[in-house]
């Protein structure tokens, strides 16, 4: 029989510093298992976010660590990213990721009310969570152009793809919440539910198109190949730039 868990998701502080190492270990293990990239963070960096009140942490009813996420600011505070979302393998598929994302989103809105909140994800599940909060798919050009942010992608296994596309596209899908110009969460949620199968198919197409040139280069290093709209309020306009 599957155990039902209750979780507490709170703003992290100095009392949680000892959890930094396990959080980093789980981030690395998760990225390896999924075969996708993740910007590596050190325990010191995670602890800094806790001290600054820019992170949320989750525990189950027995006080066992269950999940984490933190806030990063870019372009002098114009942009905010909710980064490093991780849920312990023992507590996945129970709605905790959604609860953590909701809490870190609320903390971001409270702490940086004028900032645009953005994220990059390779997964449909996180896209759904973001859509429920009011995020919209956007092109990479609408994200921060802060060099420090993009430098964090260097540790990602897909970094070569990102650079081959001149930072205009990658396997991740970009999503943005603009406090000054946005749809209501009910609208973005409804749209995602209606078009979920289309998004899933487009994600597969995007992955195939972006990875294909690299597969060809692996087969024949002497014959490298590469692939290579006005702003309108359209999800499909934002979704891909292949």
UniProtKB/TrEMBL annotation:
Q: Does the keyword Transferase apply?
A: yes
Q: Which InterPro entries match?
A: Acyl_CoA_acyltransferase (IPR016181)
Indicate yes or no for the key word Transferase: yes
What domain of life?
Bacteria
Q: Which UniProt keywords are given for this protein, alphabetically ordered?
A: Transferase
Q: Which Gene3D superfamilies match?
A: 3.40.630.30
| A GO molecular-function annotation | transferase activity
The name of this protein is GNAT family N-acetyltransferase
């Amino acid at each position: 029989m599957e155990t039902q868990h209750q979780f507490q998701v709170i703003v992290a502080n100095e009392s949680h510093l000892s959890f930094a190492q396990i959080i980093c270990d789980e981030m690395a293990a998760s990225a390896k298992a999924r075969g996708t990239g993740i910007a590596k963070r050190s325990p010191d960096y995670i602890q800094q976010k806790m001290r600054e009140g820019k992170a949320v942490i989750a525990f189950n009813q027995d006080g066992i660590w269950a999940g984490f996420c933190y806030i990063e600011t870019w372009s002098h505070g114009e942009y905010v990213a909710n980064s490093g979302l991780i849920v312990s393998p023992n507590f996945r598929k129970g709605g905790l990721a959604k609860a953590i994302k909701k809490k870190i989103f609320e903390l971001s809105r409270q702490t940086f009310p004028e900032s645009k909140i953005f994220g990059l994800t390779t997964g449909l599940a996180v896209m759904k969570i973001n859509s429920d909060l009011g995020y919209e798919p956007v092109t990479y050009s609408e994200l921060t152009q802060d060099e420090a942010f993009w430098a964090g992608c260097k540790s990602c296994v897909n970094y070569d793809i990102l650079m081959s596309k001149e930072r205009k596209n990658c396997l991740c899908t970009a999503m943005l919440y603009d406090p000054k110009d946005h749809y209501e969460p009910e609208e973005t949620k409804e749209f995602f539910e209606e078009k979920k199968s289309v998004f899933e198919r487009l994600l597969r197409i995007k992955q195939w198109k972006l990875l294909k040139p690299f597969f060809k280069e692996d087969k024949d290093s002497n014959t490298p190949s590469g692939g290579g709209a006005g702003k309108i309020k359209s999800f499909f306009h934002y979704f891909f730039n292949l």
